[in-house]
Amino acid sequence: MSERIAFRMVLHEGQAKAYRERHAAIFPDLVEALKAAGISDYSIWLDPETHHLFAILTRRRDHDMDALPQTEIVQRWWAFMADIMETDPGNVPRQVQLLPMFHLP
After folding, report:
1. Which of 2, 4, 51, 66 lies 20 to 30 Å from 58 when distance is taken between CA atoms?
2. Domains along the chain with CATH numbers
3. Which of 62, 63, 53 minimizes the C-alpha distance to 33?
4. How far is CA 85 from CA 1, 3, 18, 24, 51, in A?
5. What's the whole-number mean pLDDT along residues 10-34?
6. CB 23 within 8 A of CB 44
7. Active-site annotation holder among 23, 51, 52, 63
8. How far apart are CA 11 and CA 52, in angstroms?
9. pLDDT, average across residues 49-66
């Protein structure tokens, strides 16, 4: 069984090209870590007017996503991305969890 979650992040103005390029060359070890944690079907969308990034992913109900922030590969990715997006201390991307309101299966 799986569940979908969504969250919002904020990209610094003028950084859409860099964000897309960095994700086109995502660290293979990061992809492996995400999949091992039970994450699949992960996509990120940009609202070019507000610079908000909208992310949605599917994860197993028995996911291990909560352990990812402590891994070296995630911390390295966050450091790599910190100059182009809003972050909290430790380079953690500032995220706002979004509430499900409607779904048409």
Report:
1. 51
2. 2-84 (3.30.70.100)
3. 63
4. 33, 27, 10, 17, 9
5. 98
6. yes
7. 23
8. 6
9. 98
